[in-house]
Amino acid sequence: MLSFCKICNNISEGEICTICASPNRDSQRVVVVEEPSTLYAIERTGEYKGLYHVLLGALSPLSETNGTELTIKNLIERLEKGGISEVIIATNPNIEGEATAIYLTRLIKPLHIKVTRIACGIPVGVDLEYADEVTLAKSLEGRREIG
Ligand SMILES: [Zn+2]
């Protein structure tokens, strides 16, 4: 039965997804995405060997509450446990995604963890899951520190 990974909220067959369970992943890096579909798009690039955190949505700039606050809280708890040196924010390049990136940066910076945002090779308004693999791989490579 499919459910969400207890660590990263990825879609998983067990309590922990295969990415979180893998000993071959770089556990110091976490890419934050809005949806599992973006996680799979990044996996398809074959360029990224770290871990993920799936927000299952984005913050609304009108500050309506939704489930995303909870997954952000889970992310911060994960970071507070230590061992993660870089958080790469790969939320979508739209208003909600940008608002979420800014909010996350504000929360993560005090933890003395490097925060980067993937580069803007992605056209504005296009969800990351629809970006082609080359563009996505390049935008990961060209990520910049923010905050
Ligand atoms: Zn997981």
List keywords for this structure.
single chain, 147 residues, alpha/beta, Dna Topoisomerase Vi A Subunit, Chain: A, domain 2, five-stranded mixed β-sheet, two-stranded antiparallel sheet, 5 helices, globular, binds zinc ion
Kindly give the count of domains.
Answer: 1
The unreliable regions are: none
SSE topology string? EEHEHEHEHEHE
Helix content: 25-40%
Bound molecules: zinc ion
- CATH-defined architecture: 3-Layer(aba) Sandwich
- The N- to C-terminal Cα distance equals 40 Å
C-alpha-based Rg, rounded: 14 Å
Class derived from helix and strand content: alpha/beta
Q: Would you write up a description of this structure?
A:
The longest helix has 14 residues, at 95-108. It is globular, with a radius of gyration of 14 Å. The chain has five helices and seven strands, in the order E-E-H-E-H-E-H-E-H-E-H-E. The protein starts with a strand and ends with a strand. Strands 4-3-5-6-7 form a five-stranded mixed sheet. The protein is of the alpha/beta class and 147 residues long. Helix 4 links the parallel strand 5 and strand 6. It has one domain: Dna Topoisomerase Vi A Subunit, Chain: A, domain 2. Zinc ion is lined by residues 5, 7-8, 10, 16-17, 19-20. Residues 5, 7-8, 10, 16-17, 19-20 line the site of zinc ion.
Give a brief description.
The protein has helices at residues 18-21, 36-45, 68-80, 95-108, 133-141; strands spanning 3-4, 11-12, 26-33, 50-54, 86-89, 114-117, 144-145.
Secondary-structure blueprint of this entry?
Elements (H helix, E strand, L loop, with lengths): L2 E2 L6 E2 L5 H4 L4 E8 L2 H10 L4 E5 L13 H13 L5 E4 L5 H14 L5 E4 L15 H9 L2 E2 L2
Parallel strand pairs: 3-4, 3-5, 5-6
Antiparallel strand pairs: 1-2, 6-7
Helix pairs in contact: 2-5
The structure holds zinc ion (ZN).
